[in-house]
Amino acid sequence: MSVTDIPAAPVGGPSLPQERRLVTAIPGPRSQQLLARKAAAVPAGVGHTVPIEAAAAGGGVVVDADGNSLIDLGAGIAVTTVGASHPKVVAAVAEQVARFTHTCFMISPYESYVAVAEALNRLTPGDHEKRSALFNSGAEAVENAVKIARKHTGRPAVVAFDHAYHGRTNLTMALTAKAMPYKSGFGPFAGEVYRAPTSYPFRDGLSGPAAAKRAISLIEKQIGAANLAAVVIEPIQGEGGFIVPADGFLPELVRWCRENGVVFVADEVQTGFARTGAMFASELFGIVPDIVATAKGIAGGLPLAGVTGRAEIMDASHLGGLGGTYGGNPVSCAAALAAIDVFENDGMVERAQRIGDILTTRLGELAAAHPSIGDVRGRGAMIAIEFVVPATGDPDAAAAASVARAAIAEGVITLTCGTYGNVIRFLPPLSIPDHLLHEGLDVVAAAVAAL
Ligand code: PLZ
Predict the structure, then answer these.
(1) pLDDT digits (tens, 9 = 90+) for 15-68
(2) Contact yes or no for 71/413 (Cβ under 8 A)
(3) Cα–ligand 1 centroid distance for 179 (angstroms)
(4) Is the minimum distance from the CB of 139 to ligand 1 under 6 angstroms?
(5) pLDDT for 75 beyond 80
(6) Residue 269 CA, ligand 1 centroid: distance in Å
(7) 267 CB within 6 A, ligand 1
(8) Cβ atoms of 240 and 163 closer than 8 Å
(9) What stretches of 159-281 show up as alpha helix (H) in DSSP?
(10) Which of 125, 176, 312, 347 counts the most CB atoms within 10 A of its CB?
(11) Geometric angle at alpha carbon 132, from 290 and 151, rounded to 5°
(12) What is the rounded CA–CA span in Å between residue 11 and residue 59?
């Protein structure tokens, strides 16, 4: 097939056929052309996982410019939770774009920003009085959470954990644990950031309370509670390898923070908005954070982030101290209100639980048959498998990379993650039909069997 024979790009939305369809090798000719232009126009530091030119996406597929339809088990890194072209989001965005694209909320406020703040205040854990401020990205949300906690406490230090990921800005690089590819050569990093050991049951074998004791003891000895503004943690670590802490770890950290006047910040950027089978992962562990940072799934694919916290903490910042040109952009807010309507009223939490049941069952069977899979873990539609060298239990990054590569060649998008690069994570859009999820898992199973 020559490039000129290729039909026009398909439109997204519910009209997109929900099928895996390979009409060329991946990448096809159109995609190869784009990737060549990318290599010449975009710096080498901006990578890509799937070598295609995306042309449409929706339900559970991404369609490329060559006409291939790939099963999407990554949702653009947990962003298109309601789908990449949900009709309610599409309509809300179109309507808002036609009315106005921007005024700057700090210049002329508009209703949708306030409505998103009200929704965040209502939906995040805890029934205390809250305030929310809106930003553009997950990193910006975490960075503002730290600013707010420092202003409230008058203290400088911040604790993050082993395997943490919080972003790529200077402060959030400092909070992020992994050097390659996120930090290496990009320092010096922001000061007063300290790292504590987390709870990683598969590798440390510690109970939740024992892991919490270890972290708290380090914090008390090396930083001192009186110097500590905030503890920042992902309730389930995302990029670090979908690490679910042992029971009791998070509640004990929260208890210690409260006793010592330290602000407990939950980074729910990846776990938030129904992803884990609860509206927020904090609920799964019975914790109520002081501040919750959100982004990704919040706005159906448009850039938006939130910082939601106790009113007295959030209100400590002086007038004009918080903001940004685009924070809470009206188009993103319109999308968020539509997506939040879907999360609340279209059974998204239950859908994530159902997807979690399918993933856990199927991947559990796979792990039972293949000792190269050492652990299956996660919650809801956020499940991962960790590859190991069976004889030693050492991380096997090559196995994860090989399975992910084979799956893509067969038209299934999966993402790897983990400090050791040995984890494949499954983060499908909740709009994926069951038959596509099963077909995607069949392809992954075949790739694991071929290792
Ligand atoms: N906090 C928990 O998962 C973003 C990173 C992709 P931004 N994770 C995807 C990459 O390689 O850049 C993330 C996260 C958690 C913060 C962030 C940062 O969110 O919207 O990418 O800034």
Answers:
(1) 799 999 999 999 999 999 999 999 999 999 999 999 999 999 999 999 999 999
(2) yes
(3) 15
(4) yes
(5) yes
(6) 7
(7) yes
(8) yes
(9) 170-175, 201-204, 208-222, 249-259
(10) 176
(11) 60
(12) 12
- Closest C-alpha residue for ligand 1 atom 7: 138
Is the torsion defined by CA of 63, 64, 70, 71 positive or negative? negative
Helix (H) or strand (E) holding 374: strand 373-379
Hey, what amino acid is at 184?
S
Pocket test for ligand 1, best of 269, 298, 423 (most atoms within 8 A of CB): 269
* Ligand 1 pocket check for 143: Cβ under 6 Å: no
Closest ligand 1 atom to residue 182 Cα is: 11
Spell out the alpha helix ranges (H) of 6-153. Answer: 29-41, 75-78, 87-99, 111-123, 138-153
Q: CA quadruple 162, 168, 172, 173: dihedral positive or negative?
A: positive
CA distance 167 to 181: 12
Find out whether the peptide bond into 188 is cis, omega within 30 degrees of 0: yes
pTM of the model: 0.97
What was the pLDDT predicted at 396? 98
Closest CA to 133 of 113, 151, 147, 149: 113
Q: 234: Cβ below 6 Å to ligand 1? A: yes
- The response to whether residue 165 sits with its C-beta less than 6 Å from ligand 1 reads yes
pLDDT digits (tens, 9 = 90+) for 344-394: 999 999 999 999 999 999 999 999 999 999 999 999 999 999 999 999 999
Alpha carbon of 97 to those of 10, 94, 331, 435: distances in Å?
Answer: 22, 5, 6, 35
Helix, strand, coil percent content, the chain, rounded in steps of 5: 40, 15, 40
Q: What is the mean pLDDT of residues 124-145?
A: 98
In order of their start, the domains of the chain are 3-85+348-449 (3.90.1150.10), 88-345 (3.40.640.10)
The sheet carrying 415-417 orders its strands as 373-379, 382-387, 423-426, 415-417
- C-alpha to C-alpha distance for 183 and 16, rounded to whole angstroms: 39
> 145 CB under 6 A from ligand 1?
no
Q: Could you tell me if the CB of 177 is within 6 A of ligand 1?
A: no
296 Cα to the center of ligand 1, angstroms:
8
Q: Residue 192 C-alpha to ligand 1 middle, in angstroms?
A: 21
In the DSSP assignment, the letter for residue 395 is B
